[in-house]
Amino acid sequence: MTTVQPVILGEMPSLSKLYVNAAAQAARRRVLGSHDGSDLPEASHEVRGVTPDVGNLTAFQHLIGETASDVLPAGFIHALAFPLAISVMNRDDFPLPLLGMIHLSNHVEQRSPVLFSERLDITARVENLRGHRSGTQLDVVAEVRVTGSPRIRWRGVSTYLAKGVFLPGIDKPSPVASRSDFKVPDPTALWQLGVDTGRAYAAVSGDFNPIHLSVLSAKALGMRRSIAHGMYLASRALADVGAVKGDSFSWHVDFEAPVFLPGRVALDISTVQLPGGTWQKSEFVAWNPRSGRRHFAGAVAAL
Questions:
Q1: Which of 161, 177, 185, 72 is nearest to 122 (CA)?
Q2: 5-163, CATH topology level
Q3: Domain 189-302 has CATH 3.40.50.9100
Q4: Closest by Cα among 138, 130, 129, 131 to 172
Q5: pLDDT tens string 90-139
Q6: pLDDT tens-digit series, residues 217-266
Q7: With CB atoms 3.0 to 4.6 Å apart as the test, which of 128, 217, 263, 264 could cross-link to 139 if both were Cys?
Q8: How far is 211 from 223, CA to CA, in rounded Å?
């Protein structure tokens, strides 16, 4: 792992300001040319003493179907750290355009519970810039500690793709074998998502990306309709796995196709148990019940 120099911020950045700055930066690059270079910034951003809002936590738990608790859901912690992660990708020395980034996958290690009453130190950095058959991808790493403790309680790695952007000196990987045909299983749940689903998640996460908010704002960015936030869908699937996952677990999800709003999503959760009935892993997959197209798939496993 590369050692990076932390930049200490006085407070959590505003996502709305970051998106406005990203739009201005994109306009400058269209006029002046693209960023010169293929190196990621060797810096991390950090905010210390973050206190989650209990009202926002309750609203998040209600929205995704999580049981009310003093323990922060893993997806809530992702949302808490998200502005800091975006701020790193909003730096002038970041080589890729922030707007239009596609979220390919997410991997979280929930190493021990985090309580809403605890003050948190959150850091974010970017690493592992590499080629993709459709552009350039990288990992955004966020880590959460309780203030005053060096131990990482929560760690998330989000992989993003800058589609159509090929940086000099970064090789395009060989084509990968196509995924096996998806056979639709019997669903364990059927979600009915309203047209306001994106706005509801934005209200509790702070992620007001226009592609999630309305038909008009989504069409302005090239989408035919608004789409659900990927981390809303993943967090809801994690909530459906339930309390069997315990206090420490890994959680992985790969995003494949967007969920347009309004819409329905079918979900199947299968559980793997060791001899004696001890839980080991739950796998989940979600798809469009009309077309059979897979939206995302992932797993939750014991640490």
A1: 72
A2: Thiol Ester Dehydrase; Chain A (3.10.129)
A3: no
A4: 131
A5: 998 999 988 878 899 999 999 999 999 999 999 999 999 999 999 999 99
A6: 888 877 889 999 999 999 999 999 999 999 999 999 999 999 999 999 99
A7: 128
A8: 7
